[in-house]
Amino acid sequence: MCGILAIVGRSDVGAALYDGLTVLQHRGQDAAGIATVDGARVHLHKANGLVKDVFNTEHMSRLRGRIGIAHCRYPTAGSEGADEAQPFWVNSPFGIALGHNGNLVNTNLLRKELFEQDRRHINTGSDSEVLLNVFAHEMQNSGSLRATAEDAFRAVSAVHARCIGGYAVVTLVLGLGVVAFRDVHGIRPLVLGRRDSDDGVEWALASESVALDLLGFKRERDVRPGEGMIITEQGELLSQQCAEPKQHAPCIFEYVYLARPDSMMEDVSVYKARLRMGEKLAQKILHLRPDHDIEAVIPIPDTSRTAALALAQTLDVKYREGFVKNRYVGRTFIMPGQSERVKSVRRKLNAIELEFRNKCVLLVDDSIVRGTTSRQIIQMAREAGARKVYLASAAPPVRHPNVYGIDMPSAEEFVAHDRSEQEIEQLIGADWLIYQELDDLIWSVSEGNDDLNHFDTSCFSGEYITGIPTGYFEDLARARADHAKAARRVSKG
Ligand SMILES: O=P(O)(O)OC[C@H]1O[C@H](OP(=O)(O)OP(=O)(O)O)[C@H](O)[C@@H]1O
Ligand SMILES: NC(=O)CC[C@H](N)C(=O)O
Ligand SMILES: [Mg+2]
């Protein structure tokens, strides 16, 4: 779930794009990039690494211009290499740069079509490069000498007709401005913000509203599923629906784990949704064991904190910070390799013994995916002297791959794959394991917005709203399972 950002300002935007990326860092830790337009020139810098390591003063001084886009990457397709960092760039037609959050499921077919019909060469394994070339080809089809808004809306319509999957996209089109769009189901997020400066109105688009907050933009609204949005170089905002309305289905995992709690998505506060998840989970616990013996509720930092707090309050049990997080270690789940993830849990979290000794504790996590975190954390709680260790997950068991922008490609890697809850409980070594019900999770989010009642819940339910081409899951697992990534790293030396 990469982070994307675009700004059409009245003065240089390089520094603002950098700052905005730093608060989207939790969405992608592998690579980062910024592209700006400076007159008739595009300046682009991208590389592997965290935002703070990718850009130095010299790079920033070259990123001139009052229009730009930015990206931080968490790969879901192709390799982890620097050549697949974003924004991607094509010089024909017009000069177009693109940043993409999401994942396409018909990349192979598109790749073939681009080569055989559209005569375009794709240089990497990235689905985003394919998406850019579909958009560029459709822009080229217009035959215009200069890019127009009509051409761009037509190209967005064609992208919606050709591309299947999850995508929130920001592009820079030289001579026109920023063109942004979201897939027809609105699986991946994109929000618009406005800032009034002395020189006129300025616009920003971001994966999460937290980036708008930081930069002083007021959140206006989410980009609609299937909508095309253009902010011209002159700062005019144009919008058009570029696809027939389909079932709106934002990714529910954004609310569980991906997004920052201080973000608003689809007019729902992520923080409040997580509080409701905690309340629902507590109700389930009280229903199953009205006379439970839980003495303390302890979150597994960071993301589960909010849900754990509400859970403790609803249970009327003490909330305790039993694990301290090393603030210099990033998110473990979005690291590319399993051995790295395993090592990181220990490096990241340390137990405060006092909070565990002789106690019956309920640990809370937002989700259990591969079980990397829970297995180790339960063991740490026991080593710290806990009498009993229960574990509650604010999300239901993850049993199916995610194909829309979260790197969960292979069901066999999930601890819940082909296992009952009781078997998982045993495997991770918990005395009791409680999962959220899917209906309760859906309620927790939809309660924040009356118009929102459907979500992409594929990794819990196995239902894929876009339909999935035959053979896709097999290809995905073959290309992106942990062992495949490890083999790629070895062969690269
Ligand atoms: O079952 P697993 O495969 O371990 O995945 C789930 C864990 O990974 C995430 O934490 P992460 O460390 O990535 O980020 P956080 O600090 O935001 O909680 C998530 O919050 C769970 O704790
Ligand atoms: N997580 C994402 O949004 C990934 C974007 C794109 N599929 C890539 O791999 O770069
Ligand atoms: Mg976590």
Q: What report would you give on this structure?
A:
With 493 residues, this protein is an alpha+beta fold. It folds into two domains: 3-246, Aminohydrolase, N-terminal nucleophile (Ntn) domain (Glutamine Phosphoribosylpyrophosphate, subunit 1, domain 1, 4-Layer Sandwich); 270-462, Rossmann fold, CATH 3.40.50. It has 17 helices and 22 strands. It has helices spanning 14-22, 51-54, 57-62, 107-116, 127-140, 149-162, 209-215, 253-258, 270-288, 305-315, 338-348, 372-383, 421-428, 438-446, 458-461, 472-480, 482-492, and strands spanning 3-8, 31-38, 41-48, 67-73, 88-90, 96-104, 165-173, 177-182, 191-197, 200-206, 218-222, 227-232, 237-241, 264-265, 268-269, 296-299, 318-319, 323-325, 349-351, 360-365, 388-393, 432-435. The protein has a seven-stranded antiparallel beta sheet, with helices on one face. A six-stranded antiparallel beta sheet has the order 5-6-7-8-12-13, covered by helices on one side. A five-stranded parallel beta sheet has the order 17-16-20-21-22, with helices on both faces. β20, α12 and β21 (388-393) form a beta-alpha-beta unit. α4 crosses α5 (127-140), α5 crosses α6 (149-162) and α9 (270-288) runs antiparallel to α14 (438-446). The model has no long low-confidence stretch (mean pLDDT 95). The structure holds 1-O-pyrophosphono-5-O-phosphono-alpha-D-ribofuranose (PRP), glutamine and magnesium ion. Glutamine (GLN) is lined by residues 1-2, 73-78, 84, 100-103, 126-128, 405. 1-O-pyrophosphono-5-O-phosphono-alpha-D-ribofuranose binds at residues 257, 300-303, 331-334, 365-374. In the C-terminal section; belongs to the purine/pyrimidine phosphoribosyltransferase family. Its cofactor is Mg(2+).
